[in-house]
Input
Amino acid sequence: MNPSLLLAFCSLLESNVGISLDLSKEYLIRARLEPLARVNGFVDCEKFLENLVATALSPLHWKAFEAMATHETFFFRDDYPFGMIRETLLPELIAARKDTRRLNIWCAAASTGQEPYSLAMILEDFHTELRGWSVNILATDISDSALEVGRKGIYSALDTNRGLNKKQIDRFFTVTASGAYQISRQLRSVIEFRTLNLINAWGLLPKFDLILIRNVLIYFNREHRDLVLNKMHAQLADEKSSLMLGSSESIFSETTQYQNLRIGRGSVYRKSPR
Ligand SMILES: C[S@@+](CC[C@H](N)C(=O)[O-])C[C@H]1O[C@@H](n2cnc3c(N)ncnc32)[C@H](O)[C@@H]1O
Output
């Protein structure tokens, strides 16, 4: 494919979504956009890209951007971060917030919802301690179609088996007429699914006690990563609040406003003391 066409598309993608790709990813671009090109009446991916780079932003552009994002996720992904939340972070937060009795959690690249629902399942185990509290999980993503899956909370047997055992499936899901698994109304009620582009203005958000931003910043360039992490710093409620990245991600900076706190096999980031 014409390299300047590919580069023009990569630049469009990066400036609108943050996802940073280069010419070495031609196979990925083709694989993800070819089906969308055909469905939308283009003879091939090249003609589709020519149209995208030559026209003003439209819903078709956003479909292409969405197709370029990796939505891979599963329940209790990596396991130990969720152990850390259950055993350390939540007990600490429950003690720290006993006067306000309020917990705000943000899952900032929630994809199809398995990550926020994993959190909601853990919170269920604290229902005695949290009785009478206001507990909210905000689940955001750039992809409306991924968020819609989360909102419905309907997953295939394959999806539920990725990360959940039979006891959890029996406890938190009902089987639908078509044989799929729907997450309980109670778990759905604690999560608000909302579209949010991390590299654009965020609108009004509350302060959070826990922010998960996992397996998305790896796709961004340094400038976008720093922009997002700086803004997230301002969204953390106080020094007791934590930010969690994916297991292969970390914050590199000489003058970081975050401090890294190791907890067992994992770690979280907190506001550095002033
Ligand atoms: C690999 S998934 C991560 C899902 C989940 N956090 C996990 O670790 O299992 C990455 C998600 O980031 C979303 N994403 C990519 N760019 C984004 C942006 N600029 N703003 C918000 N979400 C974005 C994608 O749509 C995708 O659903």
